[in-house]
Amino acid sequence: MRALCWHGKEDIRCDRVPDPQIEHPRDAIVKVSSTAICGSDLHLYDGFMPGMKSGDIMGHEFMGEVVEVGSENKKLKVGDRVVVPFTIICGECDQCKRGNFSVCERTNRNRDMADKVFGHTTAGLFGYTHLTGGYPGGQAEYVRVPYADVAPIKISKNGLSDEQVLFLSDIFPTGWQAAVQCDIEPTDTVAIWGAGPVGQMTIRSAILLGAKHVIAIDRLPERLSMARAGGAITIDFEEESVIDRLNDLTDGKGPEKCIDAVGLEAHATATIDSMYDRAKQILMLETDRPHVLREIFYVCRPAGTVSMPGVYGGLLDKIPMGMFMNKGLTLRTGQTHVNRWTDDLLHRIEEGQIDPSFVITHKVSLEDGPRMYKTFRDKKDGCVKVVLKT
Amino acid sequence: MAYRQNSGANGSAMALARGLGWFSIGLALAEMLIPRMLTQQMGMEGKEPLLRFYGARELAAGIGILVSDNPGPWLWGRVAGDALDLATLATALNEQNRRKGNVAIALAAVAGVTALDCISAQALGGGANGKGQLVHDYSDRRGMPRPPDEMRGAARTDFTAPRDMRTPDALRPFTSQPTPERTFAEHSRV
Ligand SMILES: NC(=O)c1ccc[n+]([C@@H]2O[C@H](COP(=O)([O-])OP(=O)(O)OC[C@H]3O[C@@H](n4cnc5c(N)ncnc54)[C@H](O)[C@@H]3O)[C@@H](O)[C@H]2O)c1
Ligand SMILES: [Zn+2]
Ligand SMILES: [Zn+2]
Q1: pLDDT tens for each residue of B123-170
Q2: A243 touches ligand 1 (CB under 6 Å)
């Protein structure tokens, strides 16, 4: 089959690889119909995430048709149409029972490595680093889905397109959880850094959850236009001071709820701290660029909540913990507990409360994947979200 | 300085720029640490302080190119520096200088690097993300059936945040009413 494989920094190729096989009686094989490129894939593409091996199959946002099921899988049948969450979960461990699916204790098959690096293992993830199990991903014609009797979401209602439901695999629940974690009050101002696909989903979620004001921060005009369409007031961080503007918009008090939907590859204008991060990253003294987090800790209202869906990989430097502690902020973060939200969110899509396909700007074939990685990374051609068709 | 043009930069232009950045740093170190050796080679004895100064300039440009998101302006800075270097070297290209052969070689080398600097700066400058004019306007991509103001709070009727994601009562706004579930849940508010 064809699959997009990682071969090193900025080197993704559409390779011919062996078809996946059922390896465990609970598995299923899914023939992918649509798959997307995520901002998290960019961290692999740009070489920031440790634990990748040449030939790894990329992709963790995918859906398709079940073409084979293991003997013990009672949930799926050949022919079922499913969206597959990016977190692989067992459904039975202590964490899964609490709904903390992204830290499932059982599905990471490289548990020893993860225990060493993270202290304790987290869930297995598709198409991501070997620290999270190194499971072959969904930017391929076929995928083996482990524990396939737990996470996959069956789409039985007719009339829903792939584009409408595909993002249940990741970015829609991610944006939703980012907003839910803020426990939004009708009096709240919610400031969201990053108007990428995750930021866009977060904006709509915050509106649906009743935020009084939603403010989106980015620098790309097309993404800001999409943010405004969703109801956000926008700040272009290259044109104006984010801190001043946020304080202005909140009577000098700062937003109650701040969301980092950017993560470790934050850009910054010519601020001292950003130059410092770049220099340290080049010298390999720091892995991530936490510019956004610094800004958030500074501007967030005391006793406020910081929600951090943005991914960080390793070591961060000069994080103002004094500010964080004295202001009594709360921080909520993690890979998304996708299945906690998917029933509810599928229902909202079916009802027409939201249609996540609004975010798609590019639809191309799998072969065009390598080129689209670059377009998406460089934010060229108005690219916000890429869907690959197999 | 902004990096917005980085969005348009292609990989090879970026690689060339980074190479020039390291080149700058190497040259800077030589100019600052062993200026005497260089001036002797060129028959330019006495110009060491000038060379050290040029070294500092190179160092700044090199660091700027390497750490910035958009090395373009730093590369144009290098081009200006190259012009200075060429002018300085040209003064040493006279009949009295017994080392003028070396000077000619150095002039050719600097001219070559200048060409690379120009190519690199131009490559990075071009193809920039069209900031200012909105090429791709997505203001029709609402994703919701009605305008945001009408959708605001639509999910509040049938969604309650799970316990582990709720704001503790003490951190809630003074005015907000606890939802019934919250009142009956864990602890009551005083
Ligand atoms: N927690 C999860 O489970 C989960 C799931 C999906 C994605 N993510 C993470 O969410 C983040 C965003 O993903 P995406 O797909 O939207 O990626 P993206 O790269 O398309 O979007 C990031 C956006 O942030 C903007 N940005 C950069 N620096 C900024 C700054 N200083 N201030 C404000 N905005 C800035 C960029 O211009 C870009 O539009 C990534 O880190 C991704 O890994 C997390
Ligand atoms: Zn993702
Ligand atoms: Zn589990």
Answers
A1: 776 444 445 566 899 999 999 999 999 999 999 999 999 999 998 888
A2: no
Residues of chain A found within 8 Å of residue B9, distances taken between Cβ atoms? 378
Could you tell me what percent of chain A has a pLDDT over 90?
Answer: 89
**Best of A89, A262, A384 for a ligand 1 pocket test (most atoms within 8 Å of beta carbon):** A262
* The model's pTM: 0.81
CATH topology of domain A2-170+336-389: Quinone Oxidoreductase; Chain A, domain 1 (3.90.180)
Contact A226/B162, CB-based, under 8 Å? no
Q: pLDDT of A27-78, one tens digit each?
A: 999 999 999 999 999 999 999 999 999 999 999 999 999 999 999 999 999 9
Which atom of ligand 1 lies closest to the CA of A195?
A: 39
**What is the predicted pLDDT for the residue at B189?**
41
Residue A198 has pLDDT above 90, yes or no: yes
Kindly report the average pLDDT of chain B as a whole number: 80
Q: Which whole number is the average pLDDT over A357-367?
A: 98
Residue A281, pLDDT above cutoff 80? no
Confirm or reject contact between B171 and chain A (CB < 8 A). yes
B173–A269: do the CB atoms touch at under 8 Å? Answer: no
Structure tokens of B74?
A: 């730093």
CATH 3.40.50.2000: does it fit domain A172-333? no
Provide the shortest C-alpha distance from residue A98 to chain B (in Å): 10
Chain A residues lying within 8 Å of B152, measured CB to CB:
207-208, 210-211, 231
Closest-CA distance of chain A to residue B119, Å? 21
Q: How far apart are CA B105 and CA B92, in angstroms?
A: 12
- pLDDT grade for B70, boundaries at 50, 70 and 90: confident
pLDDT digits (tens, 9 = 90+) for A295-308: 999 999 999 999 99
Q: Which atom of ligand 1 is nearest to the CA of A171?
A: 6
Determine, for residues A282 and B138 on separate chains, whether the beta-carbon distance falls below 8 Å.
Answer: no
Each domain of chain A, given as residue ranges in start order, spans 2-170+336-389, 172-333
What is the model's pLDDT at position B4? 34
Residue numbers in B near A356 (CB within 8 A): 143
